Known about the structure:
Layout: E1 8-9, H1 10-16, H2 21-29, E2 37-38, E3 45-47, H3 52-63, H4 68-76, H5 80-120, E4 127-131, E5 134-140, H6 147-160, E6 170-176, H7 177-181, E7 188-194, E8 205-207, E9 210-218, H8 224-238, E10 245-250, E11 263-269
Antiparallel strand pairs: 1-3, 2-3, 4-9, 5-7, 5-8, 6-7, 6-10, 9-11, 10-11
Amino acid sequence: MxxxxxxxxxxxxxxxxxxxxKTLMWYDEIGLFRPAVIHPENGYRYxxxxxxxxxxxxxxxxxxxxxxxxxxxxxxxxxxxxxxSLLEERITELDHNIIHLKAxxxxxxxxxxxxxxxxxxxxxxxxxxxxxxxxxxTVDIDRDTSFEKEVELITAETTKFQLGRLHDASYGSMISVxxxxxGNFDNYTKLFIExxxxxxxxxxxxxxxxxxxxxxxKGGWDSIPLRYHAILDYAxxxxxxxxxxxxxxxxxxxxxxxxxxxxIQIEIPILESAY
Length: 275
């Protein structure tokens, strides 16, 4: 047996790596990571310092949820090439998880902001806000598009963009400013899906950056024309030129039980030349 001063007890080695010594005992039992020396008389396990990098690699792989069987396979055939391949797979998986977690955080922040808005909003107020450019996925609809068809279209797009859950995105509807100005308040032509961190590419709708007129409507869609009349009158009095589309989305679906309490946020771009 090596001189004891060159070895660490199982407790010391476990403490060095921030794990329970039972973990080391289990790794030994399954043949994944064995001690440098086992005392022939008392069976005590001892480890040397040079085993630390190997154990840290195992712990890293476990932290990345690599199955024990896969780690055992690697340990039996340790090489730079095998570790490179194993880490590349996990880096790719980790990148996907990071993107997903960022999207979830963005969604939570949006919901949180919606709740702040609900608690502080003045439903009668029409305000001017500044927005950054956003990329939206859109699907085309018209007056004859049934609710079932809308669900089918949205489902197809969420599958196409590999959305795991509906909460990974926010949804809304779009109606052109031209239709509003012509009094066609039911002429919705698009549904939109906003996915956090979606990169610009062909086929996506670009919601432009700049100033927007923002208002809120409480109640069902049958009374929304009255709100749009007020919005158009406000824009006219202020000398604003509205452009593009009105973007509508519900902000309180999770905290209401009847349609009469439903609140729609309305945002419409204002042409820069209007200032």
